[in-house]
Amino acid sequence: MTFKAALLGAAALALVAGSASAADLACLITKNNTNPFFVKMKEGAEKAAADAGLDFQAYAGEVDGDAAPQITAVENCVTAGAKGILITPSNDSVGPALKAAREAGILVIALDTPLADKDAQDITFATDNFEAGLLIGKWAAAQLGDKAATAKIAMLDINKDNISVDVARDTGFLVGFGIEVPDLTVMGSETDPRVIGHESSGANPEGGQKGMETLLAKDPDINVVYTINEPAAEGAYQALKAAGKEGQALIVSVDGGCPGVASVKSGVIGATSQQYPLLMASKGIEAIVAFAKDGTKPATSEGLSFFNTGVNLVTDKPAEGVPSIDSAKGTELCWG
């Protein structure tokens, strides 16, 4: 995915835009409405829908991992006669509701996070999350050099549900770092002693700080911190700072939002894998428009099981053999 393509391309269940029309309604359902990633996704979908003349309804859950509000939102969209649903599923329990939506003739596109049940979505538009993890893993190992063999690694995931995006980034990082992962479908199958532990962050700063504190209590000499996203990285940094360990651990992450890129520039985050939520959302709306017109369904990227919206490693300390862009370029492409 080129830079040019990337650029062109309130409460739970709060209805935030649009008036329903059975003929031309598109729905967006995100995990929450506070994470800048989902805020930007909504902006992209809303603008694309307006440009295409679609009515638009946006819904959001309250927290990562809570599927109940999303299930209700899906049911509301079906009742409203939506032509398509874009969703970042909180977990796989939303699958049956989405299957029912598909049976009702609605195009279902998962954004960012595919569901385990392939019949629960027509297609996924997403970052290659394994690749995103792989890039930050390779970068961290290259930065440590020979010291990578004795690294002490903290893993801050979303939660324990083995959500696909969580698993892909986690295992991708470990593989990139050079750690054997026996089972790429779950988190924590590795037995390498360099991994101090996995803690849930909730993908937010508070959870990231608490998870980091727990792992530091287990081993105060942690020198590599993997985080599921930049809000969790912010919390991990605060925990390290409070423990008097600021600058003593490499923090790596995934997202590429403007605050995260700024943290790369300041040195708080060593490297982050940048993804493009606006492109996911706008391409999703384009697909709904085509489907509503003549029933055409979107196709996956060549060689992949999803439509790949691209990823770039952002760092100001490039590593040989690991492709990257600097924080200046990352700032041009960032969101949030």
Structure, explained:
It contains eleven helices and twelve strands. It has 336 residues and is α/β, with parallel strands linked by helices. The protein has a six-stranded parallel beta sheet with strand order 2-1-3-4-5-11, with helices on both faces. Helix 2 (36-52) runs parallel beside helix 10 (277-294), helix 7 (205-218) packs across helix 8 and helix 9 (258-266) packs antiparallel against helix 11 (327-333). The radius of gyration is 20 Å and the shape is elongated. The relative contact order is 0.16.
Written as H for each helix and E for each strand, in order along the chain, the element string is HEHEHEHEEHEHEHEHEHEHEEH
Mean pLDDT: 92
Strand order of the largest sheet: 2-1-3-4-5-11
Helix percentage: 40-55%
Tell me the fraction of residues in β-strands, as a range: 15-25%
Tell me, what's the shape?
elongated
Q: Compute the gyration radius: what is it?
A: 20 Å
- Helix segment count? 11
Tell me the total number of β-strands: 12
| Classification by helices and strands | alpha/beta
Distance between the termini: 20 Å
Detail the poorly predicted runs: 1-22
Reported for the largest beta sheet, the result is:
6 strands, parallel
